[in-house]
Amino acid sequence: MKIKKITKKPVLRNNIRNREHSRLKGVVSDLSQNCEDLGVKIKQQADEITLKSGQLRNGIEKQMRSEEQIHICTKAMESATDGIFIIDAQNRDFPVIYANQAFQKMTGYAKREILGRSYFFSYGTNADPRIVNEIKYTICKGNSFHGEMLNFKKNGKKYWNSLRIAPVRDSIGSVTHYVGIQTDITLMREKELEIGEQREELLHVTRVGKLAEFVSSLAHEINQPLTAILSYAQAAQRILENREPELHKILSYIINDDQRAADVIQRLRVLLKKSAPEMKLLDINVLINETIALIITDATVRNVALKIELKSDLPFVLGDRIQLQQVLLNLISNSFDALESSSHDAREILIRTSRKDTETIIVEVMDSGCGIPAGNIPKLFSRFFTSKPDGLGMGLSISRSIIEAHGGRLDGKNNPDRGATFYFTIPIDIIKGR
Predict the structure, then answer these.
(1) Span 246-271, mean pLDDT?
(2) Phi, psi of 316 (to 5 degrees)
(3) Regarding the domain delimited by 278-427, which CATH topology (the fold level of the hierarchy) does it fall under?
(4) How many whole angstroms separate alpha carbon 397 and alpha carbon 223?
(5) Which CATH number fits domain 80-184: 3.30.1300.10, 3.40.50.170, 3.30.450.20, 3.30.565.10?
(6) Which of 92, 166, 211, 326 counts the highest number of beta carbons within 10 A?
(7) Where are the domains of the chain?
(8) What's the pTM?
(9) With bands split at pLDDT 50, 70 and 90, how would you rate the model's confidence at 9?
């Protein structure tokens, strides 16, 4: 009997299948783990990308804000009315690397003329070297500067400015730049000067007022002994009547001169007296003759020849006798002073009247003195301006005010040859004039 051999192939296949299944299961498990790991990594990377994206977005926003702030700051500096500039402190020439519009306008230099050049070139050659050196010394030491100085524009025009310069430091404290602010204070300085001049004028007016009071009091005191002298001379004249004719004649001179002195004192007191103007019809020629009578002695002492050319039959004018006489006295007195400064032998003053037109009379006081310096002509009638060391500077200003109050005009000019002429016009009284 033949025995059939049992094969093991099914078992082997099962084993192979099982091993393959196990291997595949392991591969699937590994793939699943790898997928999980990959998912975690992808999530981590996605989180990192989100974070970095947020950081990048924040950085962009910060940069945009910074750029916006820089833009705003630049616009603000460009719009400022004060001059703003930045200096490179690491360059020993201190070149300007920024200058706003106000700085350019203030100095008169264009931006291309400023940038890259030393800051100190803008001061020019006329600036005070002591202040310029002080600024250089201060910023070389890394300190701040604050002061006022007279500066000059590109065209040479002067202007006052308040200057403030401060250092800009880096993170370790080293000075890298200087920022400066320059303010034009010319108007402020002019106002201060004007206030100072007004204060001086007020003090001057006070002193002049006190002087007028003193002179008025002095005139009163002098008038008393003059009255006594007159009484004594008249008494002696009565005692010596019909005797001692020569002595009687001398007494007559004393009486006449005493009365004339008293008359001058009285006119002086009237001139200094505070009173409202008294407008009356006046003969301008008569007024001039009366004024000459007051000053003829002074002219003789000064060796000055007083000449008159008075137009006859002039109409009357309406005016205040004392005020117009004050104007004439002032003009003649100024001519006396001009002749003192003159080296010419001819010492003459000519007073002339004439008709300027059908409605106006003109009075001229002409001298052969030193004339008026060209620079003084625009200031002649300014209050308290004087070219005399002991002058008050009020005469011409007051005289012009008086003439203008009378409806006329007072002015002055140099003569063609030498000397000067001051002249004033005064309207004719059309209704009551001759």
Answers:
(1) 72
(2) -70, 155
(3) Heat Shock Protein 90 (3.30.565)
(4) 30
(5) 3.30.450.20
(6) 326
(7) 9-76, 80-184, 202-274, 278-427
(8) 0.44
(9) low
